[in-house]
UniProtKB/TrEMBL annotation:
The keyword Cell wall biogenesis/degradation does not apply. The keyword Hydrolase applies. It comes from Leptospira kobayashii. Keywords: Hydrolase, TPR repeat. This is PPM-type phosphatase domain-containing protein. InterPro entries: Bact_Sigma-Reg (IPR052016), PPM-type-like_dom_sf (IPR036457), PPM-type_phosphatase-like_dom (IPR001932), TPR-like_helical_dom_sf (IPR011990), TPR_rpt (IPR019734). It comes from the Bacteria.
Amino acid sequence: MSMPEEGSKLLSAREISSRRVSGLIKAYLQEYQSYSGSNPFPEIVEEATFRKILKDSNFWISQDLEDRLISTIAKSVDISGLLYHLGTETLITNAFDLLPLDDTKIFIDELIHRIPILINRLTRTVFLHIFFTGPKTALFQFEYLSRYKEKWYDAIFFQGMLNGLAVLYELKDYKINMTKTRLFGIHVSHKDLGDDIVFGADVNEYRLTWTDEPLSLSRAIANEDQNSNNRHKVMIVSRGDTLNEKISIVDINDVVDKSRELAIENRDLEAAVEVLKSFKFELEKKQLSIAKDLRLAKNIQKGLIPQIIPDWKGIQFWTAYYPMQEVSGDYYDYFPFASDRLGVVVCDVSGHGVPAAFITALSKMLFTNYKMGKPSETFKFINRDLLDLVKQQGYTTCVYALIQDDYKIVYSTAGHPRPILHRARTNKAEILEGEGTFLGMFPEGGDTYKDHSVQLEPGDKLFLYTDGITEAESDKGVPYGEERLLNAIESCADMTIQETIEHIMQLHKEFTMGTDPMDDITLLGWQLSTKLPEFNDYKKLGDESYKAKNFAKACEYFQQAYEILPRELNTQLIYGRALAHSRKFEEASSLLESYNRFKTNNYISHAVLGFCYYKLESFEKAELEWKKAHSLKDDNLSVLYNLAMVYLKLGAKAKMRDMLDRMKRIDIQNQNIIPLEKKWESMLDEE
């Protein structure tokens, strides 16, 4: 094949030794191609020239031809590792010729000064300048002639050569960093060359630093009968000072072979690292996805489980809830039955994590659906539905109690720890009776559920809990147990239900100190207030004062009632309204915010809270509350008027116009519309 015209031009200049590209092509053909003996780059170089590049170590070619060959190979494979190791071998194989001709020993700093000789044997495009900035720190500055352009692969090859120095002198603690380059980017990851490279500089610069003890090299004197053509390049390695000198003989070929073996091992290791990085990246992606899903599940479950149960007819509640993981298999809830009964449930689903959380969500749905007159009847329906939905792939234990307005408690258990009753008059805690099997495990489970009852008296406390409390262990492996729980309850005789729950959990924490939780923990308790008659009296007086529009007096009575039962919702609402009428907007907004956390669908609470925010000039909050009120009662003109006033304050002309149009659709004769339209027109005039 005749060489292309362009190829002739490429050979007309000879600036680069073909040693580098020859080694690269050989490695490329050996490892990445099935070499048939023919030229794989006929469009770049003719056959004769290709064979010279492979066979003649003293053959020179143009920089452009080398660049085209390297660029072509680089399109198929990542050659950065090959270039680096070729640079290392080039230094090692040529270092022998840089040594003194006699057996004089030289240290690494002397050999460094001789490297420009080697560079001149490899290229005419660049010159090397060397500066020592310290006893063990050398700067290598590669200066390109003006008519030649530096290449990205030079950066890797030259750094590989400096690594050859480290290999020859057996350096253990050294660093080779590129500090400057004329390039504006490099084909490989910059961190592999240096951490703080200055790009677009006027020179290519590397810094070599080392801390190892001195080691020297010298030629080994050959025997006179040794054929010079077959003579191995052998060096003498000297370690230590003159008195303690240790000498060894090293064959350059052995060093090159070991370097190649190490390069192959490093390349395999790098490949393995890349695979591990890929696995790590995928694992991190999955972990992030799982963490995101768990956060979502946690937030969903947080919405399913009430943070606080409001007071009900003189009964005060408090809970302690500690999930072992992001999501929990423990579940508790309450269910109002009109005005005469309140259902309270505590469940413990088998297992942990998302599957258990899924069954807790099902449990909430089922308990909400089945508000039967007896807990045992509710269990029968839920057991049947769980069997149908979960297919015996999970189950839950449960205790369910109905609190009646005469304070009689009717309850049933399903494989769950039995309730504990603390009598105020005797200060004795006892475990109540109970039986029944798990929910969602046995089709015949409905026959095992029984109803039991107990009458609550003023000051009495009743506790529902999961076995995460009693089965928790101390650091010596001793379980907390029921007896210890009973004693803890009795030690809280004079405390409120909130103080009691918090004190029990503090004692439990001290007992299990130094151990990891083995299960989710839930403790739910309630107490019938001993001050219920006083509460009812204050509430009645407050209601009468409110109806008489004596709001200041109403606030006094409601405050006293509120101190007795602070989470009684009806009192919270009317007390908040009385405070608003008394222009105590901050106190009113605090109460109504608390009320809305329990009751989200009360039109009056949102409307009054919006009024308080408006008076406090929190117009965005007022807008939000009045929009909630409007969604519950969209034909109320007063809320539309209030929203229009908010948008007037906020300068939201389009939204104000919308409110006016809605008011007209409801009542075009409304006396508030004309004044509002004038205000809206004045907003337009101000523009």
